[in-house]
């Protein structure tokens, strides 16, 4: 069937429905370069405004998935389960979680992303371990999974190339926050991993992509629907992202805190979420024992050993796991102090995430180099009582001018009041 891009853009612009054939032509044409960026950006804007119905979303996701090669682990008998987070501030959960569940017998072929905007990325954090490579060719990817039941890597060139192009285009054209486009982007990449089960962590709140519970719910339901239609057991947990997770924000900082969790000394919120996610992943894998089994893997050291093993397999230096003071650390230190005594009523995830990015821990554009040793250690969170002059956060930075530019902004993340704030539970809803 012959289509023109203009005709399809006009159909979507005017609220019409695209046929399966039209969507197949569009995604294939954009991936191979026949459809230029300017036409696809008009199309994604039309989708952002008018949405995709169920059959359009199904065709869109399936064409994205078919644009590249699929991983096939059917020769590995153990259940394959992954977890994806829509991204938050201080969200290092994947790093302790993946080795923990792998130590309990689940195979975790985890494919993660880099940080962009105010949220950090698992790949950048892992690269603060000297030598750790997240760019694995398909042969090495497979051998790490086969040998260790775990791999922590980035998306290869051949996996879902349609999303690689489309996500970069959306990022540059203000068309990221569309539920059908986010859902098809995330789920096409996850479905390409050949999984039996998938846990989706859909963040909600100031530091999340979805700022309201309603939007987070809609995103969770849409992604769960796609997963199930492919026969993958899929559960979404909606989790709170109003304040950062844990006490550490920044790449090496978050590796340090992840190791604390694996050693049984992590902060309460990160430990609670890691165990809760672990329980769901074991359930999706059909492995009994739940929380007891996970706690035993931490207590026995098996989870930490799994992280050391995968670090060595991916070229990383394990001595920084044994002695985390060897991880990168920026040379300068400053503090944020409480302007008055009282109770912390705000510890804003978005402000802290943005300040951390602008200090160099994140990227403002894909080409930026990040500073792995830059980070913020948070010492006062929602509901904590503080005295005037008490340190709310310690900041490790390298560039004086950047710190001067962020000093006041970072301090604005905290508000000190007189009445205890309402705090949301970490896990708000389960959708399946
Ligand atoms: N993460 C993705 O992989 N895709 C999106 O569209 C948004 C977040």
Can you give a write-up of this model?
With 432 residues, the chain is of the alpha/beta class. It folds into 3 domains: 5-51, Transferase, Pyrimidine Nucleoside Phosphorylase, Chain A, domain 3, CATH 1.20.970; 81-324, Pyrimidine Nucleoside Phosphorylase, Chain A, domain 2 (3-Layer(aba) Sandwich), CATH 3.40.1030; 329-417, Alpha-Beta Complex (Aldehyde Oxidoreductase, domain 3). It has 17 helices and 13 strands. The strands form 4 sheets. Strands 1-4-5-13 form a 4-stranded mixed sheet, with helices on both faces. A 4-stranded antiparallel sheet has the order 6-9-11-7. α10 (213-229) links the parallel β4 and β5 (233-240). α12 packs across α13 (290-299). The radius of gyration is 22 Å and the shape is globular. The protein starts with a helix and ends with a strand. The structure holds uracil (URA). Residues 167, 176, 181-182, 185-186 line the site of uracil.
Give me a quick take on this structure.
The protein contains 17 helices and 13 strands. With 432 residues, it is an alpha/beta fold. Strands 1-4-5-13 form a four-stranded mixed β-sheet, sandwiched between helices.
């Amino acid at each position: 069937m012959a289509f023109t891009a203009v005709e399809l853009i006009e159909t979507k612009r005017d609220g019409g429905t695209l046929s399966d054939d039209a969507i197949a032509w569009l995604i294939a044409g954009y991936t191979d370069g026949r459809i230029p960026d300017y036409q696809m950006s008009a199309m994604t804007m039309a989708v952002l405004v008018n949405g995709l119905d169920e059959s359009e979303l199904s065709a869109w996701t399936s064409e994205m998935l078919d644009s590249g090669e699929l991983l096939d682990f059917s020769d590995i008998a153990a259940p394959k389960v992954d977890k994806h987070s829509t991204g938050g501030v201080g969200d290092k959960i994947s790093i302790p979680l993946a080795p923990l569940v792998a130590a309990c017998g689940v195979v975790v072929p985890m494919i993660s992303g880099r940080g962009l905007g105010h949220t950090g990325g698992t790949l950048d954090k892992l690269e603060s371990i000297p030598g750790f490579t997240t760019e694995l060719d398909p042969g090495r990817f497979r051998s790490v999974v086969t040998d260790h039941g775990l791999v922590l890597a980035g998306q290869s060139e051949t996996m879902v190339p349609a999303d690689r192009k489309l996500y970069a285009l959306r990022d540059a054209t203000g068309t990221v926050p569309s539920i059908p486009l986010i859902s098809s982007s995330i789920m096409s990449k996850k479905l390409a991993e050949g999984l039996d089960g998938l846990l989706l962590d859909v963040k909600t709140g100031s530091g999340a992509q979805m700022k309201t519970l309603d939007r987070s719910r809609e995103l969770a339901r849409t992604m769960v629907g796609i997963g199930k239609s492919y026969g993958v057991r899929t559960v979404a947990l909606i989790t709170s992202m109003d304040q950062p997770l844990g006490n550490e924000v920044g790449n090496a900082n978050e590796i340090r805190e992840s190791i604390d969790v694996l050693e049984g000394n992590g902060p309460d919120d990160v430990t609670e979420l890691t165990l809760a996610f672990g329980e769901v992943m074991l359930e999706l894998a059909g492995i009994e024992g739940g929380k007891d089994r996970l706690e035993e893997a931490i207590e026995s050291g098996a989870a930490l050993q799994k992280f050391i093993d995968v670090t060595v397999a991916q070229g990383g230096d394990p001595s920084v796991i044994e002695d985390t003071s060897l991880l990168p650390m920026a040379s300068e230190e400053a503090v944020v102090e409480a302007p008055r005594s009282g109770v912390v009523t705000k510890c804003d995830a978005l402000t802290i995430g943005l300040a951390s990015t602008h200090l160099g821990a994140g990227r403002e554009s894909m080409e930026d180099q990040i500073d792995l040793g830059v980070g913020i250690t948070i010492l006062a969170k929602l509901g904590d009582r503080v005295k005037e002059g008490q340190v709310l956060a310690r900041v490790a930075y390298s560039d004086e001018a950047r710190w001067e530019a962020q000093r006041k902004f970072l301090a604005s993340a905290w508000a000190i009041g007189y009445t205890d704030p309402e705090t949301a539970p970490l896990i708000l809803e389960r959708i399946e």
